[in-house]
Amino acid sequence: MRAGHVAGPSERLGDAPDWELIDTGDTVSWHDHRSHWMSPKPPPIVQGDPGTERVVLEDDLSFIEDGEPATAHVVVTWQPPPSQLWLLGVSAANLVALALVTLRRRSAGFVAAIAGVGAFVGRPAPFSCTIATVLAAALGIAALALHLARRERSAIPLGTAAGTVALLVAVVRFDTLSRALVPGSIPATVQRLLILSTMAAGAGALFAGLLAVASPRRSPPDATRYAPTPS
Fold first, then answer.
1. Would you put residue 157 in left (φ > 0), alpha (ψ -120 to 50) or beta?
2. Cα angle vertex 199, ends 107, 50, to 5°?
3. By the 8 A CB rule, do 182 and 191 touch?
4. Which of 19, 68, 182, 211 is geometrically suited to a Cys-Cys bond with 188, CB 3.0 to 4.6 A?
5. Helix, strand, coil shares of the chain as percentages rounded to 5?
6. Stated pTM of the model
């Protein structure tokens, strides 16, 4: 285990080990507790100034490779967490999205599409979360297509569903805004922007659906109904 809270082997240290074949390849990997900071708490120097990147552990690890002594130089660096401004950005983006769909109801389809596609792009996630992102993207794109086809009544439930699923995905990945290191091939800043936009657009699409239920707009009168009768 990473923290080393595991009982050692029952054999005495002086006894010969019992070897077990696990692979026929020519490489092997293992976890070495000497290669990371063991305590769950940061070093005192970091606790006093957590916002500064600094080296907390540097050591040479000795081992035997092909019968010859070898050394690996290990440097463990403390990475400060991201700025708290990301959390303020989430609040600001949510307010903008809610204001947009309130003042311009016709933007709901675009907001739903942004929420769905934004949820689809991000750091690696569990399989269930991946299915949810695919669903959010499909619903958002479908809502936008119906919106562009002027079938807004049909687009509303799809947009609301896309916003709800995307918002849930963004909540699951919300730790991206507070993690110093974010896994994945996409840069951490880009992932944080995607999560921020997904959360805001998801909240906006969901709110647009609630507005449509609470205060539905009447459809424009049928022009042909009032057309003058030809003489």
1. alpha
2. 145
3. yes
4. 182
5. 50, 10, 40
6. 0.64
Residue 203, amino acid: A
The pLDDT, as a whole number, for residue 230 is: 59
Q: What is the pLDDT of residues 137-166, one digit of tens each?
A: 788 888 888 877 888 777 788 888 888 888
Coil, strand or helix: which one is 64?
strand
For residue 161, what is the enclosing H or E element?
helix 152-172
Average pLDDT taken over every residue of the chain: 77
d(CA 53, CA 174) in angstroms, rounded, equals: 23
What is the distance between the alpha carbons of residues 13 and 31, in angstroms, rounded to a whole number?
A: 19
Count of other CB atoms within 10 angstroms of residue 223: 7
